[in-house]
Amino acid sequence: MLARCLAVAAVAVLASAGPPSPIYRPCYLDDYKCISDHLAANSKCIPGRGQIPSQYEIPVFRFEIPYFNATYVDHNLITRNHDQCRVSEFYDNVRTLKTVLTVDCPWLNFESNRTLAQHMSFKEDVVLSFYINGSYPLIRLTTVFDKGNNFDLCSAFTFADLAGGLPIFHINPNDQRTAQWLSKDLTLLHIYEREHIFGKRNWLARSFISRTLCDFGCHH
């Protein structure tokens, strides 16, 4: 009688558990060698070249802010704390044949002289210039690799999330015209910053992954 009860209980447990999860986590999140080897085994990437610098400079970085009909160009863009990014999620989905890699970047800092060109119908662009230094509490970058695309990072989509909220920033206009134009109304800042980080997401994710984990040869 006891054996029969145990058998019934076992069947009930298995039934309630449902089908096995398709999520497979092959590595500990801090085991970058394991993650690197796993990516290399499924793609043509070359395992990590070393750590990304704590500070570096890019001569020109251009990004678009469609909501405000504007093009921005960062001149002499200094990036700090990119080396502090850490892998916060890594798994394979054996059902969809996709791999998810999430990188958390605390207190990324961007400093540059930024040019803004605001576009309008039937008119010339309004061109403005200002110095900006901004620190972001947490930027989260989630990249989805597709087995059907040979885990190609260079064409993979990366989602950027301002997980830590809006940045702490300092702005100085470079001329009187910009000083008069700059708004003190920050009610739409969250829209601007989402589009700003969206414009930088591929460079941030791909440069960190290629330097720290596995080099896919992307032109960021």
UniProtKB/TrEMBL annotation:
Keywords: Secreted, Signal, Silk protein. It is found in: Secreted. GO terms for molecular function: structural molecule activity. Residues 1-17 form the signal peptide. One of its GO terms (cellular component) is extracellular region. InterPro entries: Fibroin_P25. The keyword Secreted applies. Silk fibroin elementary unit consists in a disulfide-linked heavy and light chain and a p25 glycoprotein in molar ratios of 6:6:1. This results in a complex of approximately 2.3 MDa. This is Fibrohexamerin. The gene is Fib-P25.
